[in-house]
Amino acid sequence: MSKVWHISDLHLSFKEDGSIQKPMDKRSWSKGCEAYNNYLDKIAEFAKNNITNSDITVITGDIVHDMGLDKIIYSLKWIRNNIPGHIVICRGNHDTRWQVSKFREKYNIPGLHILDEYETFVLKEYMFGCYSDHKAKTKTNTEELLSFANYLSTVAQKKSKTAVFISHYPVSKETAEELAKNKNIKAYLSGHIHCTNNETGNEECVDLTWYNESAEPTDDKTFGNCYFSTATTDLLLYKHGQIFKEIKNLKSKEKKKVENNLKNNAAKAFKCNISYVYRFNRQDPFNENNYVSGFICRKKGPTQGSLYITHINGKLLPESQLILGTPKLAYPYKRKNGREYIEFPKDKKWIVTEKYNGVNILFFKYTDLDGKTCISAKTKMAPFLSDNDLGQFLTLTKKAVKLNKFNNFSTIARLLKNDEIASVSAELCGSEKPHLVKYDFPLALKPLFVRHKDGNINPVTSFGNVLAMGIQSSEAAEKCIQLQDLMFQENERYRKENNLPHSYEYEHFINEGGVLYLTDPDTGMVINNHIYKIKPKDIEEVHWKTFDTNMKQLVDQAVEKIKTNEEKVSEKTLQEELDMGEKQWSKFGRSVMKYIESGHSVSKSNKSSMVLLCGLPGSGKSTLSSVLKNKGYKIINQDEMGSRKKCKNATIDFLNKSENVVIDRCNFDIRQRKSWLDLAKEYGVDSVYCVWLDLSKEECQKRAGSRKNHPTIKTEKTAHRVVDEMSEKFVEPTLEEGFKKIYKINRDELDINNLLTYIEDIWG
């Protein structure tokens, strides 16, 4: 198994004759630090005794001290001669006098891999991604960094590699916490921070802080699953007593195998594809000594939000525990906006209970390592309750538990004491957490149904929440229609008495409807665990309303009116002009602002379409483009236009003229494709298609190598190298990126007429 070692800021300055141009003890930050005495010997000795030929050493910048290309080679050769194994390097702010591309053209040092900005590199079981903004002096570009992190994560996951993010500049604590939300990145390695200088000396040199105002007195920290390491030589020597830091949190192959098995088991338990299974690691807020790890299901359906608990406090459980989530309530109609009900199973008991308008809270049980039963709670899509931007769910739930006068938590607690019951679903509602329905109590947890250990469900009907019931399911539909009409009349009367409009707004309704359960007459269990929502038509109308063409026209009119009044178009002025309350704005506000920011209106909608060609060099893109060009299509080809900027400007010009555009580039990863998708979105193009020429690497190498007079690939050797490198980096296109449709051609013998059929299918 390859170990990964980390070191930074060597600041080497070797001359051709092997002497040192500027000794470390002459530099401002190192004066008075005894750790630097003979530090080069310490590097060589430690490496010889600890690092093997199968290991990887990452050096995160400031390899040399302000030296040009003709001088750095002696320092890099010293590194190669004294550190075994593979070496991965990114540049720092003291390395800006030489360029990676120029170095590659002039030198080749086996086993030494220098990464340029925004570059990824696969080495053994790892994928390293380099982000190092050399222009930054006090902070990095957080948006760019996080964007590149997402790209690195996506590519590494598709290639089943462990993602390691390397950068010279460290990030703030806040950025680290954001970065750690990306579960696929396991380590962030940086440098730059020296812990001594000529003012503080040795006494203060352990007072290392994160590289911004939010100080964190440590040089390494773990946020989530991501380990953050800063490894300047003085820090390592003085604080750690060694010259390299081993990054121990990266998973071994065996651990990866165990993890993959657990994830596959979770997918089987959730009855979904593994792509919908996500790892979580959270502290249980109701059992604060427990840090619980496992998987959560993100696939819409009966198991959405379910948990598969595998670890507690970092220890693997003898047997994983499945916590089934709250099933989504279904409409019982044959068609949307209809009153015709589906055909229910015959001879079943039916019950309609009151439907509460709030946030669903699932109280569930799990067993810790000591065999103790722990009770906790979660929302639909989170493993545990927390306070966040979406709401103060944890605080409000704890408060509701204490409000016994209005609350039924005693019922929930009593039910959970039953060994056969695995969970209780409840609704958190009340005037302190306003929604559509007006409640006359501040806060409550209303029990809805229980889930038994065998997975079966039965409703909780013990505290007067039953609206109707019967012993023949054939009667259910007729009774539900009567309830719908009655509840609509009650809502209308409430709005009239309180002078309220019929709109999607806080506390504009007196009831939200009912919940229909069809149960087995003998056991009381819900049939197939299907639960239905019975809503009055006014509630259905506001729930089903979307940001449609009519609403876009209203936004257009609002914008024109605001501009006529010489006011600034903003969230505030739009909300006022559209007469939207807080609840309605919370639902439609984001769509309104995105529509405004897109720069187009309904009347000015761009009729263009865009086609992205995607494939390796030699896959047939140019052949297809040449035929399309002769048929009048607008082709964007960087080899012909000369620069990306010219390509972008030409694309904008064509889109403004409502022309159909073909992007003739390799578009080999998500990041490259996203720039064109974003451009299409910015200029109002609704339809972006992808034609993916998925030919084998060998066929592409053969074709690219045989081409004559290609603007960038001149030789057969270059063609083989470029295709090989691009094949390693290639990420398959998916609809989730924003394409309307993807046309995939995956055979080596291409028929240009068949290709044209795809294009004609797009543009007719």
Task: Give a structural overview.
By secondary structure, this protein is α/β, with parallel strands linked by helices. Among the domains are: 4-250, Purple Acid Phosphatase, chain A, domain 2, CATH 3.60.21; 549-597; 606-763, Rossmann fold, CATH 3.40.50. The protein has 21 helices and 31 strands. The chain has a six-stranded mixed sheet. Strands 4-3-2-1-11 form a five-stranded mixed sheet. Strand 5 and strand 6 (126-130) form a beta hairpin. The chain is globular. Residues 197-218 and 600-604 have low confidence and may be disordered.
Backbone shape: globular
- Percentage beta strand: 15-25%
And the CATH topology of one domain? Purple Acid Phosphatase, chain A, domain 2
**Which residues sit in consecutive blocks of at least 5 with pLDDT less than 50?**
197-218, 600-604
As a whole number of angstroms, the C-alpha radius of gyration is 31 Å
